[in-house]
Amino acid sequence: MTWPVRTERLSLRPAVAADVDATWRIRRIDSVVQWLTAAPKDREEYRARFEDPGRLAKTLVVELDGEVIGDLMLAIEDAWAQAEVADRARGVQAELGWCIDPAYGGRGYATEAVRALVRLCFEDLGLRRLTANCFADNVSSWRLMERLGMRRELHTRRESLHRSGEWLDGLGYALLADEWRG
Questions:
Q1: SUPFAM superfamilies attached here (predicted)?
Q2: Under 8 Å CB-to-CB from 182, ≥6 apart: which residues?
Q3: How far apart are CA 17 and CA 50, in angstroms?
Q4: Percent with pLDDT over 70 in the chain
């Protein structure tokens, strides 16, 4: 695969350690951090998480005119399979995630970036299935999933403990390669 991946307005590329400050700037905005899996208390804690080789390998940054405006997660996974066919289920699907600076909201950048990620997954990586999850109250996130043609497969009731102390509903979406090509 050749990097960066370019869209009409954006570039996607693998994250590097030097992206820590640009992504930290976005991930500490209140309207962003409320939905993130982890909320590091300071830059140093964030840097340690960001630079972890396992996480860094799953992270792409989104750039607009050379400025980082967000990041994407691409976590390639094995599908569930019975033991006799487990070898055919290795590395065939991925979980996606995204974090876009709200200052760039409402202009289609998140849709453009994640659409490019979906194309990359199905065309370049040959994956068969993509999933994405969010809190049900994260309307922007699940609307993005629906704009991309993802199908809601799961709505859990008060299954996810939020850092606010509340148990919130969760949503899970998926898209198959043949659905995307259709």
A1: Acyl-CoA N-acyltransferases (Nat)
A2: none
A3: 7
A4: 100
Find the length of the chain. 182
pLDDT tens digits, 68-95: 999 999 999 999 999 999 999 999 999 9
Of 27, 46, 75, 36, the residue nearest 160 (C-alpha): 36
DSSP β-bridge partners for residue 160: 168
**Domains of the chain by range and CATH?**
5-181 (3.40.630.30)
- Count CB-CB contacts under 10 A for residue 132: 23
pTM, entire model: 0.95
Phi-psi region of 152 (alpha: psi -120 to 50; beta: other; left: phi over 0): beta
Compute, in degrees rounded to 10, the torsion defined by CA atoms 33, 37, 39, 40: -140
